[in-house]
Amino acid sequence: MAELLRINVVHSTQHKIFPTITIWILVILGIIILLVEGRAKAKAGKPLFTKPKSIFVENYDKLKFWGCIALMVAYFSLLDVIGFTVTSILFVYLFNTLFGGLDRLKNKKYHLNSIIISLVSVISISLLFGTVFDITLPDGICTIWIKSLGITIF
User: Fold this and answer.
1) What is the model's pLDDT at position 70?
2) DSSP class of residue 11?
3) What DSSP letter does each residue of 55-108 carry, written as one string?
4) Is residue 127 scored above 70 in pLDDT?
5) Span 92-107, average pLDDT
């Protein structure tokens, strides 16, 4: 039993601990919800699963919804290949562009602001987590180690 409660931390993969813990908590909570809801529906004589009418709101923005899904899949796929900082800068910019709307695509000032936001926010997070808190982030081919200053840009 003690082995189940022990977490072996390897510095290079410590960024994967909390997502794993979160997934297991969500699985356990999902099972609890199914048990509680199943019991209540069984008492009421209703089936546990019913066919939903529709999960989408009528006339939803298909470009933003499916674009967001595609960008998230691409982001998580490239994170360990390219590295946190470069991948995040690119995808924060792409998400800003996606949610900015079609009318802003021709505005150069909007793109400049989006690039500045992407660079400042992601580099700040990378330096804060990687250097100040010494927490690893996914590294890849674009990870930069400045050993003389003790800085890692994942």
Assistant:
1) 96
2) G
3) SS-TT--HHHHHHHHHHHHHHHHHHHHH-HHHHHHHHHHHHHHHHH-GGGTT-H
4) yes
5) 88
How far is it, in rounded angstroms, from Cα 39 to Cα 44?
A: 9
Please give the distance of CA 62 from its chain centroid, rounded to a whole number: 21
**DSSP three-state, residue 145:** strand
In the chain, where the domains are located: 1-51, 56-153
Place of tokens 């390897």: 10
pLDDT of residue 152 exceeding 70, the answer is no
3-state helix, strand, coil in the chain (%, to 5): 65, 5, 30
Residues, the chain, total?
154
Q: How far is CA 132 from CA 1, 17, 118, 140, 148, in A?
A: 35, 19, 20, 20, 15
Distance CA 143, CA 154 (A): 5
Give pLDDT, residue 31.
94
The answer, yes or no, to whether residue 106 has pLDDT greater than 80, is yes
CA pair distance 137, 33, nearest whole angstrom:
33
**Tens-digit pLDDT profile for residues 63-88:** 888 999 999 999 999 988 998 889 99
